[in-house]
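Researcher: Go.
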Amino acid sequence: MTAPICVITPSFAQGRFIERTILSVLDQGIEGLDYVVVDGGSTDETVDILTRYRDRLRFVSEPDDGQTDAVNKGLAMTTAPVIGWLNSDDVYYPGALAAVLELFAARPEVDVIYGDAHHIDVNDGVIENYYTEPWNPDRLTEVCFLSQPAVFFRRRLVERFGPLDAGLRYCMDYEYWIRLARGGAVFAHLPRVLAGSRLYADTKTLGARVKVHAEINDMLKHHLGRVPDRWLSNYAHVLVEEERGIANADRPRFVYALVWATLAAAVRWNRWPGRPLLILLGGWLRGAVAHSLRVRRRPA
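Model: Structure:
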């Protein structure tokens, strides 16, 4: 009998979190659930933990080419009509999978369901809500409002659009949502908190924010022909803060550096800044100059 849903967990050296991830999947209580963990050859306690649950999940542990490769391996190992992808430091909340399957059953035209999510800390405490919006494919190119662990899609999309882009290290999920949306896939928002996405200093994306944003811009350039202004300024923000060490509070110095970094990003990805971006940057500069004048006029 074909499983109603498969969950794929890519894993590498996440022994301190992975049991919580595993239990959040198995405790969903879905009959016939196919749960596959693709581990990259961890040498910590991960394999021992996986072995303890081997009667309730399938796993492989061998060297791979990273997270994207691991997810693609999992896609090839499974046949269920609905797919979830949960990283080895994230968790599902109770009832998440049942709610997703119920909506898929009620709306056969829907290809992708995305729910709400929390950012959680190392102790599973809620830090904040993940920013999510009602479905709008144009807005998706401006901001990634889909939280990856709260996204589920039908296998027919893999058959139509292929797996994740193996050349991407950081934004493979965002690229996939854009690829599906531009290809006509039908998305539906489920207004329910489905997952916790863990946020801490050692995560791959927080540890390499400039590289993350550069890869996003390369990806958007490939799909759209140009990078939206919002993503150019996002890249400039992290570049100025992290590589140049200029704090946001250090105005107007921060603003001047941000303007030049945004202009350089526009030239790098779009050849030249468009009029809306120039107007925006002009407003930033006028604000910075006004701030400097106010500071100079303050009595000693």
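Model: Residues 275-297 form the longest helix (23 residues).
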